[in-house]
Design a protein that fits this description.
The complex is a heterodimer. By secondary structure, chain A is mainly α. Helix content of chain A is about 85%, strand content about 0%. Chain A has 4 helices and no strands. By secondary structure, chain B is α+β, with helices and mostly antiparallel strands. Chain B folds into 3 domains: about 1-55, no CATH class; about 90-200, PH-domain like (Roll); about 205-324, Pleckstrin-homology domain (PH domain)/Phosphotyrosine-binding domain (PTB) (PH-domain like, Roll). Helices cover about 25% and strands about 40% of the residues of chain B. Chain B has 6 helices and 16 strands. In chain B, the strands form 3 sheets. A 7-stranded antiparallel β-sheet of chain B has the order 6-5-4-3-9-8-7. Chain B has a 7-stranded antiparallel β-sheet with strand order 13-12-11-10-16-15-14, with helices on one face. The N and C termini of chain B lie far apart (about 60 Å). Classes of the chains: A mainly alpha, B alpha+beta. The interface of A and B includes residues 31, 39, 41, 78 and 89 of A.
Chain lengths: ~110, ~325
Amino acid sequence: MPLSVDEKNLKQGVLSLVITLVEVIQEALESQAVRRMEGGELTEEELNRLGEALLELDEALEQIKADHGITQSVADLRRGLDDVVDEVVDKLINPARWADEAGDRT
Amino acid sequence: MADAFPLAPLEPVRNPQATLPDLIDVLLNRGVVVHLDLIISVADIPLIGVSLKAAIAGIETMLEYGMMRSWDEQTRAWVQRSISRTVPFLPDEELIARMAGACESSGYSSTWRPGTVYLTNRRLFVFRREPREMLWEARLDAIRAIETYVDNTIGGQARTRVRLRTGDGSILRLSASDPERLVRLAGDEIAARDARVDGIAPATTLLREGQLWYYEPRAGGAVWRGGQARIDAATGFSWKAPIDARAAVQLRPEDIRGIHLESDRAPTGNIVLVIDVPWGSARFAAHDITQWADATAAFATTTGTLAAAEPGAHMAGDHDAAQR
């Protein structure tokens, strides 16, 4: 399943793609930050600094999306990306699918 | 065993939609190790070799496997040092909190002098960076009482400020951007310091330690897991499975609402220790479960009544009384 990036408006399309990837990385960072916070090794000062930095990143991303009017296209792209991942994961862990595909070919 | 635990047939269940963040989360939480050997050849003549060994995981997972521990510590220590280049910290002094604030100076007339309030594990001080001056400082063991109070600013607005009394009886007023947090952290630190000074050695507070089964709630239903439990008056009741990185159960005396023995199926017999906690109940089993029940009860009551005798030992007034 191909990802569709709007051809007519290439600049916006590329920007959406970049922002989408940054958002994915940001989410990964956030969930790892939560794990570290729960790990209990960080000091109070470090917790605060980490929380504020992530909040700033989040606000900056929202601001960029709003400025360029790409909130909707980023959301669409993410849904597309999720579908691709879903399909790949499904293919990898579901042996029934392998049989289906082998059957299709013969 | 199969007769003792009639299990429903397990059905493999998978969330129909896997998303990219889910995938990344799983990869980072579990960790990925890649070993790749690759030769690129043209006309069967090897030209380029690649030997790649990579381990990718969240730092918390890395630490669990004992990797990058010193690097993690160094990185975090570096920030501490870069702060301490500008601020005159003592050797082995650790920063706990830092916020904008001011302290009242009593000269010919009392004025508020702005600076940054630093709370460390040794001192509480107000420091001004430009021009460089230590406006006020006190060692934590010299602070007798610390509390918030509401003051009126020159403009007539009510504002929460911090008031503290030092060993020589002088009273100082501070203003800070987050006074409640400052007082809470300082109170905790002073209380922890007193506990260390009083010499309550953790070894003498151990009530019981040993093998204990825990009925662990999970997404697909609870299971019995074997592990080590420890009842310690200083650190609380904790239970941890050998393969876990952290304790799955961590109870303080005030968490224990009730203790009773129940007749139920368990790996070690037909008696289960049930501890009522604010978020439900925790079930444990062991061959010597009655001793565990006694130890837990002793832990809940002795330390519990102690805590009741001096509610919030870290609060300003009580702390003061305890000092005398």
